[in-house]
């Protein structure tokens, strides 16, 4: 397995994104980790003993102009927002669908080894729930994209971890998770709350490393 991989992370300051970047910086298989961000990263956010981190401030509305940064082995897309944060359905869709879809297109254009992004449990393009419908439409759009065979989506339920911003219902869910999580068994097990660190670990295992060339074009 190659120990000379490069990666790009979108959404590096989010709950899962921070976990992904931290792991990549300490993973001997990676020599460079580029983070596309909206604003400069605080120096204290990551421990980078080997100088792998390359933060790049960009305008996500012009993401297609940064295609050159996608000349890497692996793309980790951890972008995501909420309707409350976005302020409207159109703004939500711009982040959770359009930005991620453009990232997948740039991944394909640069012929990266693989692309992994965060979807959601229950994602369904025919759902009456707007959030789940957008997630499902995105899965369909990426999985059907020609010449992007090594793409995978992780589908977490409620994410556990400490966020910088407050999300009311999510905070309540996190406090109740130890009580109701163990009750979800069998077919309901996929709805158990999951830690951001577990999701990060899953994303890394889904990437296509040299010598591990299985086609990952399925949702997980």
Automatic annotation (TrEMBL):
SUPFAM superfamilies: NAD(P)-binding Rossmann-fold domains. Residues 11-131 form the NAD(P)-binding domain. Pfam families: NAD_binding_10. InterPro entries: NAD(P)-bd_dom, NAD(P)-bd_dom_sf. PANTHER family: OXIDOREDUCTASE HTATIP2 (PTHR14097). This is NAD(P)H-binding protein.
């Amino acid at each position: 397995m190659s120990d000379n991989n490069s990666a790009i992370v979108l959404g590096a300051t989010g709950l899962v994104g921070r976990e992904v970047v931290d792991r990549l910086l300490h993973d001997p298989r990676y020599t460079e980790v580029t983070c596309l961000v909206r604003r400069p990263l605080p120096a204290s956010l990551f421990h980078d003993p080997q100088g792998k981190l390359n933060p790049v401030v960009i305008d996500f509305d012009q993401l297609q102009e940064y295609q050159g940064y996608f000349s890497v082995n692996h793309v980790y897309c951890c972008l995501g927002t909420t309707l409350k944060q976005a302020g409207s359905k159109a703004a939500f869709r711009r982040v959770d669908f359009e930005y991620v879809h453009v990232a997948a297109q740039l991944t394909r254009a640069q012929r990266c080894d693989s692309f992994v992004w965060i979807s959601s449990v229950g994602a369904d393009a025919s759902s009456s729930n707007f959030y789940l419908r957008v997630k499902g439409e995105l899965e369909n759009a990426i999985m059907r994209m020609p010449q992007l065979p090594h793409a995978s989506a992780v589908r977490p339920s409620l994410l556990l971890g400490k966020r910088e911003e407050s999300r009311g219902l999510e905070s309540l869910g996190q406090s109740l998770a130890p009580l109701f999580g163990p009750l979800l068994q069998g077919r309901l097990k996929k709805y158990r709350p999951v830690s951001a660190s577990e999701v990060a670990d899953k994303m890394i295992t889904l990437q296509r490393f040299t010598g591990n060339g299985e086609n990952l074009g399925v949702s997980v």
